[in-house]
Amino acid sequence: MSFAPKSKIVSQSKISSQRLAKSKLSTLSPAVPIWLRWLITSQRYTSAIAFILISATLSSYAAIVYSQQQWNREYQKLQSLQRKERELTTDEEQRKNQLAEIAETKTQGLIPPKPENNLFLEAAPQRPATKNPNTSINSASNSRSNPAPLGY
Asked: Which residue intervals are annotated with compositional bias (Low complexity) in the record (predicted)?
């Protein structure tokens, strides 16, 4: 009588059957021609490569279709905005024309511009420059060397 647990007996029998199967394969291997082994191996590799290539092709096709749909949507938005811009420009020009027609009528009381109606203003007197104690010599030299405007 054996005192070993059943799980060990079952696992040992599985291991022995696996070893037997491996030994059968190794004994059958020499019977398989080399060219057939090469074909089986190449079939495995080419199947994997074909799967990868098909996946890449389908994903790139999906990306192209998606980008075309996005481009089409954005192009339609652009066309709509351009159409609205043309409509606004037309409306603006029509209003300018209406204002010009109203201004030309004598009943509005508008006077056409004449040189004698121009107003000329005299320049303000020059004020003396004040020195700011917070400005340093470096900033003054930088402002002279850089003739760009300070801002708009």
From this structure: 134-146
Please state, in angstroms and rounded to a whole number, the distance separating the CA atoms of residues 42 and 34.
12
Rounded Cα distance between 149 and 152, Å, is: 8
The HSE-up count of residue 22 (CA atoms within 13 Å, CB side) is 6
Digit-coded pLDDT (tens) for 86-123: 999 999 999 999 988 887 877 777 777 788 888 888 89
Burial 85-110 (b: 16+ CB within 10 A, else e): eeeeeeeeeeeeeeeeeeeeeeeeee
Q: CA separation (Å) from 147 to 106, 134, 142, 144, 152?
A: 51, 21, 9, 6, 14
| CB of 111 closer than 8 Å to CB of 117 | yes
Task: Quote the pTM value.
Answer: 0.42
User: 150: number of CA atoms within 13 Å, CB side?
Assistant: 4
**Which amino acid does the sequence have at 33?**
P
